[in-house]
Amino acid sequence: MNDDEPSSENGNPKPAGMSRRGFLHGMGGAGAFLGMAGLAGGQAAPRDADGNIIPGFEKNQDDANAAQDWQPVSDRKIRVGIAGYGLCRFGALFFYQNHPNVEVVAATDLDPGRCAVLAKAVGAKKTYPSCEEMIKDKSIEAIYIATDAPSHARLAIMALNHGKHVVSAVPAVFGFEAEGEAEALFNAVKQSGMKYMMNETSAFHQDLYEKRVQYQAGALGQVIYSEGEYYHDFGKGLTGYNPKNGKIDLMGWRRGLVPMWYPTHSAAYYTSITGGRFMEVSCLGTKSLYEGFQKENNPYQNSFGTEVAMYRTSDGGISRMVVAWDMKDAHGEKGRVYGQKPHDPKIDGRRPALPPGVGGGGHGGSHGHLTNNFIESILLDKEPIVGIGDALNMTLSGVIAHQSALKGGEWMKIPQYTL
Protein backbone atom coordinates (compact mmCIF):
# COMPACT_ATOMS: atom_id res chain seq x y z
CA MET A 1 0.00 0.00 0.00
CA ASN A 2 1.22 3.42 -0.55
CA ASP A 3 0.83 5.26 2.63
CA ASP A 4 2.51 6.14 3.49
CA GLU A 5 2.00 3.61 5.67
CA PRO A 6 3.79 3.82 7.76
CA SER A 7 4.06 4.11 10.92
CA SER A 8 3.72 3.55 14.50
CA GLU A 9 1.99 6.88 15.11
CA ASN A 10 -1.32 6.23 16.86
CA GLY A 11 -3.67 5.26 14.03
CA ASN A 12 -6.87 4.93 15.96
CA PRO A 13 -10.09 5.12 13.93
CA LYS A 14 -12.12 5.70 17.09
CA PRO A 15 -11.12 7.03 20.52
CA ALA A 16 -8.53 4.65 21.94
CA GLY A 17 -8.52 3.11 25.37
CA MET A 18 -4.73 3.26 25.54
CA SER A 19 -2.64 6.40 25.64
CA ARG A 20 0.22 6.99 23.24
CA ARG A 21 2.68 6.76 26.13
CA GLY A 22 0.96 3.57 27.25
CA PHE A 23 1.62 2.15 23.81
CA LEU A 24 5.35 2.69 24.25
CA HIS A 25 5.40 1.10 27.68
CA GLY A 26 3.29 -1.76 26.37
CA MET A 27 5.85 -2.45 23.65
CA GLY A 28 8.66 -2.83 26.19
CA GLY A 29 12.37 -2.52 25.48
CA ALA A 30 12.70 -5.75 23.52
CA GLY A 31 9.33 -5.44 21.82
CA ALA A 32 10.29 -2.07 20.38
CA PHE A 33 12.81 -3.80 18.16
CA LEU A 34 10.66 -6.66 16.93
CA GLY A 35 10.86 -6.84 13.17
CA MET A 36 13.63 -4.25 12.94
CA ALA A 37 15.89 -6.58 10.99
CA GLY A 38 13.47 -6.44 8.10
CA LEU A 39 13.04 -2.70 8.38
CA ALA A 40 16.70 -1.84 8.63
CA GLY A 41 17.66 -3.63 5.45
CA GLY A 42 17.48 -0.37 3.54
CA GLN A 43 17.04 -1.47 -0.05
CA ALA A 44 14.75 -4.50 0.32
CA ALA A 45 11.25 -3.71 -0.95
CA PRO A 46 8.53 -3.77 1.75
CA ARG A 47 6.16 -6.73 1.54
CA ASP A 48 2.68 -7.61 2.79
CA ALA A 49 1.73 -10.54 4.99
CA ASP A 50 1.63 -12.88 1.97
CA GLY A 51 5.20 -11.94 1.06
CA ASN A 52 4.22 -9.89 -2.00
CA ILE A 53 5.94 -6.59 -2.71
CA ILE A 54 3.59 -3.72 -1.86
CA PRO A 55 2.43 -1.92 -5.04
CA GLY A 56 4.66 1.00 -5.93
CA PHE A 57 7.84 -0.57 -4.59
CA GLU A 58 8.46 -3.12 -7.33
CA LYS A 59 11.43 -1.19 -8.65
CA ASN A 60 13.27 1.97 -7.70
CA GLN A 61 12.42 4.12 -10.69
CA ASP A 62 14.83 6.98 -11.30
CA ASP A 63 14.68 9.45 -14.15
CA ALA A 64 17.67 8.69 -16.35
CA ASN A 65 18.50 12.36 -16.97
CA ALA A 66 16.83 13.78 -13.88
CA ALA A 67 19.60 16.19 -12.86
CA GLN A 68 20.67 17.22 -16.36
CA ASP A 69 18.62 20.38 -16.68
CA TRP A 70 17.96 21.19 -13.04
CA GLN A 71 18.43 24.80 -12.02
CA PRO A 72 18.39 25.81 -8.34
CA VAL A 73 15.80 28.42 -7.40
CA SER A 74 17.52 29.38 -4.14
CA ASP A 75 20.55 28.58 -2.01
CA ARG A 76 18.46 28.50 1.16
CA LYS A 77 18.04 25.27 3.14
CA ILE A 78 14.65 24.45 4.66
CA ARG A 79 14.95 22.86 8.10
CA VAL A 80 12.77 19.73 7.98
CA GLY A 81 11.57 17.28 10.61
CA ILE A 82 10.41 13.80 9.51
CA ALA A 83 7.77 11.78 11.37
CA GLY A 84 7.23 8.07 10.74
CA TYR A 85 9.21 5.09 9.45
CA GLY A 86 6.88 2.08 9.58
CA LEU A 87 6.02 -0.67 7.14
CA CYS A 88 6.88 1.22 3.94
CA ARG A 89 9.77 3.25 5.43
CA PHE A 90 8.35 6.35 3.76
CA GLY A 91 10.10 8.75 6.11
CA ALA A 92 13.42 7.78 4.55
CA LEU A 93 12.36 7.10 0.94
CA PHE A 94 11.48 10.57 -0.34
CA PHE A 95 15.03 11.95 -0.67
CA TYR A 96 14.76 14.82 1.83
CA GLN A 97 18.21 13.88 3.10
CA ASN A 98 19.62 14.33 -0.42
CA HIS A 99 17.90 17.55 -1.49
CA PRO A 100 20.33 20.50 -1.74
CA ASN A 101 17.71 22.89 -0.32
CA VAL A 102 16.92 20.75 2.75
CA GLU A 103 18.53 20.14 6.10
CA VAL A 104 16.87 17.25 7.94
CA VAL A 105 17.26 18.33 11.54
CA ALA A 106 14.99 15.91 13.41
CA ALA A 107 13.21 12.56 13.17
CA THR A 108 10.57 10.78 15.20
CA ASP A 109 8.63 7.53 15.46
CA LEU A 110 6.74 6.15 18.48
CA ASP A 111 8.78 2.96 18.21
CA PRO A 112 12.27 3.83 19.56
CA GLY A 113 13.96 1.26 17.33
CA ARG A 114 12.32 2.58 14.19
CA CYS A 115 13.06 6.13 15.30
CA ALA A 116 16.77 5.35 15.56
CA VAL A 117 16.85 3.70 12.12
CA LEU A 118 14.96 6.61 10.56
CA ALA A 119 17.28 9.20 12.12
CA LYS A 120 20.32 7.36 10.79
CA ALA A 121 18.81 6.98 7.32
CA VAL A 122 18.00 10.69 6.95
CA GLY A 123 20.99 12.07 8.85
CA ALA A 124 18.95 13.68 11.62
CA LYS A 125 21.05 14.52 14.68
CA LYS A 126 18.01 15.11 16.87
CA THR A 127 15.21 12.66 17.67
CA TYR A 128 11.90 13.03 19.50
CA PRO A 129 9.68 10.41 21.16
CA SER A 130 6.61 11.64 19.24
CA CYS A 131 5.61 13.90 16.38
CA GLU A 132 3.81 16.14 18.86
CA GLU A 133 7.07 16.80 20.68
CA MET A 134 8.97 17.39 17.44
CA ILE A 135 6.38 19.91 16.26
CA LYS A 136 7.18 22.07 19.32
CA ASP A 137 10.79 22.51 18.12
CA LYS A 138 10.81 26.14 16.99
CA SER A 139 13.87 25.64 14.77
CA ILE A 140 11.95 23.31 12.41
CA GLU A 141 10.36 25.05 9.41
CA ALA A 142 8.56 22.13 7.75
CA ILE A 143 7.22 18.75 8.87
CA TYR A 144 6.93 15.65 6.70
CA ILE A 145 4.15 13.49 8.20
CA ALA A 146 4.73 9.90 7.07
CA THR A 147 2.70 8.33 9.87
CA ASP A 148 -0.36 6.09 9.78
CA ALA A 149 -3.42 7.42 7.97
CA PRO A 150 -5.70 8.14 10.96
CA SER A 151 -3.13 10.52 12.48
CA HIS A 152 -2.43 12.64 9.37
CA ALA A 153 -5.00 15.39 9.87
CA ARG A 154 -4.47 15.80 13.61
CA LEU A 155 -0.70 16.11 13.30
CA ALA A 156 -0.94 18.36 10.23
CA ILE A 157 -3.29 20.74 12.05
CA MET A 158 -0.99 20.86 15.06
CA ALA A 159 2.06 21.58 12.89
CA LEU A 160 0.26 24.29 10.90
CA ASN A 161 -0.90 25.92 14.12
CA HIS A 162 2.74 25.98 15.24
CA GLY A 163 3.69 27.89 12.09
CA LYS A 164 5.23 25.04 10.12
CA HIS A 165 4.79 24.06 6.49
CA VAL A 166 3.33 20.56 6.18
CA VAL A 167 3.57 17.73 3.69
CA SER A 168 1.46 14.71 4.57
CA ALA A 169 1.23 11.17 3.29
CA VAL A 170 -2.17 10.20 1.89
CA PRO A 171 -5.02 10.51 2.70
CA ALA A 172 -5.38 14.06 4.03
CA VAL A 173 -8.27 13.12 6.35
CA PHE A 174 -9.56 9.72 7.34
CA GLY A 175 -12.64 7.66 8.05
CA PHE A 176 -15.41 8.40 10.51
CA GLU A 177 -13.92 11.77 11.42
CA ALA A 178 -13.01 12.85 7.89
CA GLU A 179 -15.60 15.55 7.29
CA GLY A 180 -14.92 17.26 10.61
CA GLU A 181 -11.16 16.91 10.10
CA ALA A 182 -11.48 18.45 6.63
CA GLU A 183 -13.06 21.60 8.05
CA ALA A 184 -10.40 21.90 10.76
CA LEU A 185 -7.50 21.19 8.38
CA PHE A 186 -8.76 23.68 5.80
CA ASN A 187 -9.11 26.38 8.44
CA ALA A 188 -5.63 25.64 9.81
CA VAL A 189 -4.09 26.04 6.33
CA LYS A 190 -6.07 29.21 5.64
CA GLN A 191 -5.36 30.86 8.98
CA SER A 192 -1.69 29.89 9.20
CA GLY A 193 -0.74 30.95 5.70
CA MET A 194 1.70 28.03 5.60
CA LYS A 195 2.12 25.61 2.69
CA TYR A 196 0.26 22.31 2.82
CA MET A 197 0.77 19.45 0.38
CA MET A 198 -0.51 15.89 0.23
CA ASN A 199 2.02 13.41 -1.14
CA GLU A 200 -0.21 11.82 -3.77
CA THR A 201 2.21 9.63 -5.70
CA SER A 202 0.00 9.27 -8.77
CA ALA A 203 0.35 13.02 -9.41
CA PHE A 204 3.88 12.45 -10.67
CA HIS A 205 3.37 9.18 -12.52
CA GLN A 206 4.75 9.88 -15.98
CA ASP A 207 1.50 9.04 -17.79
CA LEU A 208 -0.55 11.28 -15.52
CA TYR A 209 1.93 14.15 -15.58
CA GLU A 210 2.06 14.04 -19.38
CA LYS A 211 -1.74 14.33 -19.54
CA ARG A 212 -1.56 17.19 -17.05
CA VAL A 213 0.79 19.10 -19.37
CA GLN A 214 -1.45 18.31 -22.34
CA TYR A 215 -4.51 19.60 -20.50
CA GLN A 216 -2.80 22.78 -19.31
CA ALA A 217 -1.67 23.48 -22.87
CA GLY A 218 -5.29 23.20 -24.05
CA ALA A 219 -4.50 20.15 -26.17
CA LEU A 220 -7.20 17.92 -24.68
CA GLY A 221 -10.00 20.43 -24.52
CA GLN A 222 -12.74 19.53 -22.06
CA VAL A 223 -12.16 16.22 -20.31
CA ILE A 224 -15.23 14.15 -21.10
CA TYR A 225 -14.31 10.98 -19.25
CA SER A 226 -11.60 9.90 -16.83
CA GLU A 227 -10.96 6.82 -14.74
CA GLY A 228 -8.52 5.79 -12.06
CA GLU A 229 -7.80 2.47 -10.35
CA TYR A 230 -5.90 1.37 -7.27
CA TYR A 231 -5.69 -2.41 -6.98
CA HIS A 232 -3.97 -4.25 -4.15
CA ASP A 233 -5.00 -7.75 -3.13
CA PHE A 234 -4.76 -7.67 0.67
CA GLY A 235 -4.68 -11.43 1.12
CA LYS A 236 -3.67 -11.94 4.75
CA GLY A 237 -3.46 -8.19 5.17
CA LEU A 238 -0.95 -5.52 6.10
CA THR A 239 0.34 -4.74 9.55
CA GLY A 240 -0.68 -1.61 11.40
CA TYR A 241 -0.93 -0.09 14.87
CA ASN A 242 -3.58 -1.91 16.92
CA PRO A 243 -5.12 0.39 19.54
CA LYS A 244 -6.65 -2.56 21.41
CA ASN A 245 -3.33 -4.08 22.43
CA GLY A 246 -0.80 -1.33 21.70
CA LYS A 247 1.06 -3.47 19.19
CA ILE A 248 1.77 -3.44 15.47
CA ASP A 249 0.04 -6.48 14.00
CA LEU A 250 -2.40 -7.77 11.38
CA MET A 251 -5.31 -6.52 13.48
CA GLY A 252 -4.14 -2.91 13.18
CA TRP A 253 -5.83 0.11 11.59
CA ARG A 254 -5.72 -1.43 8.10
CA ARG A 255 -7.87 -4.35 9.22
CA GLY A 256 -10.97 -4.25 7.01
CA LEU A 257 -9.99 -0.80 5.70
CA VAL A 258 -12.81 0.72 3.65
CA PRO A 259 -11.47 0.82 0.05
CA MET A 260 -12.83 4.29 -0.67
CA TRP A 261 -11.26 5.71 2.48
CA TYR A 262 -8.00 5.36 0.55
CA PRO A 263 -9.06 6.86 -2.79
CA THR A 264 -6.39 9.32 -3.81
CA HIS A 265 -4.18 7.08 -5.99
CA SER A 266 -7.23 6.68 -8.22
CA ALA A 267 -8.78 10.14 -7.85
CA ALA A 268 -5.56 11.86 -8.95
CA TYR A 269 -6.24 10.66 -12.49
CA TYR A 270 -8.82 13.41 -12.72
CA THR A 271 -8.00 16.02 -10.09
CA SER A 272 -4.22 16.18 -10.62
CA ILE A 273 -4.71 16.47 -14.39
CA THR A 274 -7.45 19.09 -14.58
CA GLY A 275 -7.45 20.80 -11.19
CA GLY A 276 -11.21 20.21 -11.34
CA ARG A 277 -13.46 18.89 -8.61
CA PHE A 278 -15.67 15.87 -8.00
CA MET A 279 -19.11 17.32 -7.27
CA GLU A 280 -21.43 14.31 -6.81
CA VAL A 281 -20.92 10.58 -6.46
CA SER A 282 -22.78 7.29 -6.78
CA CYS A 283 -20.90 4.22 -5.56
CA LEU A 284 -21.41 0.47 -5.25
CA GLY A 285 -19.40 -2.02 -3.23
CA THR A 286 -18.92 -5.77 -3.35
CA LYS A 287 -18.76 -7.93 -0.27
CA SER A 288 -15.33 -9.44 0.36
CA LEU A 289 -14.69 -13.07 1.25
CA TYR A 290 -11.61 -12.19 3.32
CA GLU A 291 -12.01 -12.75 7.04
CA GLY A 292 -10.82 -9.24 7.93
CA PHE A 293 -13.58 -7.68 5.83
CA GLN A 294 -16.42 -9.24 7.77
CA LYS A 295 -18.24 -6.53 9.72
CA GLU A 296 -17.66 -8.15 13.07
CA ASN A 297 -13.91 -8.48 12.44
CA ASN A 298 -12.85 -4.87 11.82
CA PRO A 299 -13.25 -1.52 13.61
CA TYR A 300 -15.08 0.05 10.65
CA GLN A 301 -17.94 -2.50 10.43
CA ASN A 302 -16.97 -2.73 6.78
CA SER A 303 -17.74 -5.68 4.50
CA PHE A 304 -16.69 -4.16 1.16
CA GLY A 305 -13.45 -5.38 -0.40
CA THR A 306 -13.97 -3.45 -3.66
CA GLU A 307 -15.78 -0.16 -4.31
CA VAL A 308 -16.52 1.44 -7.69
CA ALA A 309 -17.59 5.09 -7.84
CA MET A 310 -19.05 7.25 -10.60
CA TYR A 311 -18.55 11.00 -10.25
CA ARG A 312 -19.97 14.12 -11.83
CA THR A 313 -17.13 16.57 -12.30
CA SER A 314 -16.98 20.35 -12.10
CA ASP A 315 -16.28 20.70 -15.83
CA GLY A 316 -19.31 18.64 -16.85
CA GLY A 317 -17.54 15.33 -17.35
CA ILE A 318 -17.81 11.88 -15.79
CA SER A 319 -15.23 9.94 -13.80
CA ARG A 320 -15.07 6.30 -12.73
CA MET A 321 -12.78 5.61 -9.77
CA VAL A 322 -12.07 2.19 -8.25
CA VAL A 323 -10.30 0.97 -5.14
CA ALA A 324 -10.07 -2.82 -4.69
CA TRP A 325 -8.45 -4.89 -1.97
CA ASP A 326 -9.54 -8.39 -3.03
CA MET A 327 -9.46 -8.82 -6.83
CA LYS A 328 -7.06 -11.43 -8.16
CA ASP A 329 -4.77 -10.51 -11.08
CA ALA A 330 -5.45 -6.80 -10.46
CA HIS A 331 -2.47 -4.76 -9.39
CA GLY A 332 -1.17 -1.25 -9.02
CA GLU A 333 -2.17 2.34 -9.71
CA LYS A 334 -3.37 3.27 -13.18
CA GLY A 335 -5.76 5.54 -15.02
CA ARG A 336 -6.95 7.05 -18.27
CA VAL A 337 -8.27 10.44 -19.38
CA TYR A 338 -10.11 11.34 -22.57
CA GLY A 339 -10.87 14.83 -23.85
CA GLN A 340 -12.60 16.47 -26.78
CA LYS A 341 -9.29 16.67 -28.61
CA PRO A 342 -6.65 14.00 -29.30
CA HIS A 343 -3.34 13.76 -27.46
CA ASP A 344 -0.73 16.02 -29.10
CA PRO A 345 2.59 14.12 -29.38
CA LYS A 346 4.47 17.35 -30.09
CA ILE A 347 3.97 18.62 -26.53
CA ASP A 348 6.85 17.74 -24.22
CA GLY A 349 5.26 16.06 -21.21
CA ARG A 350 8.40 14.99 -19.38
CA ARG A 351 8.51 15.56 -15.65
CA PRO A 352 10.64 18.43 -14.28
CA ALA A 353 14.35 17.95 -13.76
CA LEU A 354 15.39 16.85 -10.28
CA PRO A 355 18.34 18.06 -8.20
CA PRO A 356 21.54 15.98 -8.19
CA GLY A 357 21.20 13.14 -5.68
CA VAL A 358 17.39 13.18 -5.76
CA GLY A 359 16.04 10.23 -7.72
CA GLY A 360 12.52 9.50 -8.90
CA GLY A 361 12.20 6.64 -6.43
CA GLY A 362 9.19 4.39 -6.01
CA HIS A 363 5.56 4.64 -7.15
CA GLY A 364 6.36 5.28 -10.78
CA GLY A 365 9.33 7.50 -10.03
CA SER A 366 7.21 9.98 -8.06
CA HIS A 367 8.91 10.24 -4.68
CA GLY A 368 11.67 12.68 -5.53
CA HIS A 369 9.36 14.83 -7.65
CA LEU A 370 6.90 15.25 -4.79
CA THR A 371 9.67 16.30 -2.42
CA ASN A 372 11.17 18.76 -4.89
CA ASN A 373 7.73 20.22 -5.62
CA PHE A 374 7.02 20.77 -1.91
CA ILE A 375 10.39 22.38 -1.22
CA GLU A 376 10.10 24.65 -4.26
CA SER A 377 6.57 25.63 -3.21
CA ILE A 378 8.09 27.04 -0.02
CA LEU A 379 11.09 28.67 -1.69
CA LEU A 380 9.02 30.23 -4.49
CA ASP A 381 5.85 30.85 -2.46
CA LYS A 382 3.65 28.92 -4.89
CA GLU A 383 0.88 26.33 -4.58
CA PRO A 384 2.14 22.72 -4.40
CA ILE A 385 0.99 20.24 -7.03
CA VAL A 386 -1.51 18.75 -4.54
CA GLY A 387 -2.55 21.63 -2.30
CA ILE A 388 -5.28 21.67 0.31
CA GLY A 389 -8.20 22.06 -2.14
CA ASP A 390 -7.14 19.10 -4.28
CA ALA A 391 -6.21 17.02 -1.23
CA LEU A 392 -9.58 17.45 0.46
CA ASN A 393 -11.57 16.90 -2.72
CA MET A 394 -9.70 13.70 -3.55
CA THR A 395 -10.05 12.39 -0.01
CA LEU A 396 -13.64 13.41 0.70
CA SER A 397 -14.75 12.10 -2.68
CA GLY A 398 -13.93 8.64 -1.36
CA VAL A 399 -15.45 9.17 2.07
CA ILE A 400 -18.77 10.27 0.55
CA ALA A 401 -18.55 7.48 -2.03
CA HIS A 402 -18.51 4.91 0.77
CA GLN A 403 -21.58 6.53 2.30
CA SER A 404 -23.25 6.19 -1.10
CA ALA A 405 -22.28 2.53 -1.31
CA LEU A 406 -23.88 1.90 2.09
CA LYS A 407 -27.07 3.40 0.65
CA GLY A 408 -27.02 1.22 -2.46
CA GLY A 409 -25.58 3.80 -4.85
CA GLU A 410 -27.61 6.90 -3.94
CA TRP A 411 -26.20 10.08 -5.52
CA MET A 412 -24.58 12.29 -2.89
CA LYS A 413 -22.97 15.73 -2.94
CA ILE A 414 -19.29 16.17 -2.00
CA PRO A 415 -18.25 19.08 0.28
CA GLN A 416 -16.11 21.67 -1.50
CA TYR A 417 -13.01 23.49 -0.22
CA THR A 418 -11.11 26.09 -2.21
CA LEU A 419 -8.70 28.67 -0.80
The count of strands amounts to 14
**Major pleated sheet:** 6 strands, parallel
Q: What amount of the residues lies in strands?
A: 15-25%
Uncertain parts: 1-42
In which range does the helix fraction lie?
A: 25-40%
Query: In terms of structural class, how would the helical and strand content be classed?
Result: alpha/beta
Query: What is the tally of helical segments?
Result: 11
Strand neighbour order, sheet with most strands: 3-2-1-4-5-6
Short recap of the structure:
This protein has 419 residues and is α/β, with parallel strands linked by helices. Helix content is 27%, strand content 19%. The chain contains 11 helices and 14 strands.
Spell out the blueprint of helices and strands.
Elements: H1 20-31, H2 36-39, E1 78-83, E2 102-108, H3 112-122, E3 126-128, H4 131-135, E4 142-145, H5 152-161, E5 165-168, H6 178-192, E6 196-198, H7 206-216, E7 223-231, E8 240-242, E9 247-249, H8 264-274, E10 278-287, E11 304-313, E12 318-324, E13 332-339, H9 362-365, H10 367-379, H11 388-406, E14 412-413
Parallel strand pairs: 1-2, 1-4, 2-3, 4-5, 5-6, 7-12
Antiparallel strand pairs: 7-13, 8-9, 10-11, 10-14, 11-12
Helix pairs in contact: 5-6, 6-11, 7-8, 8-11
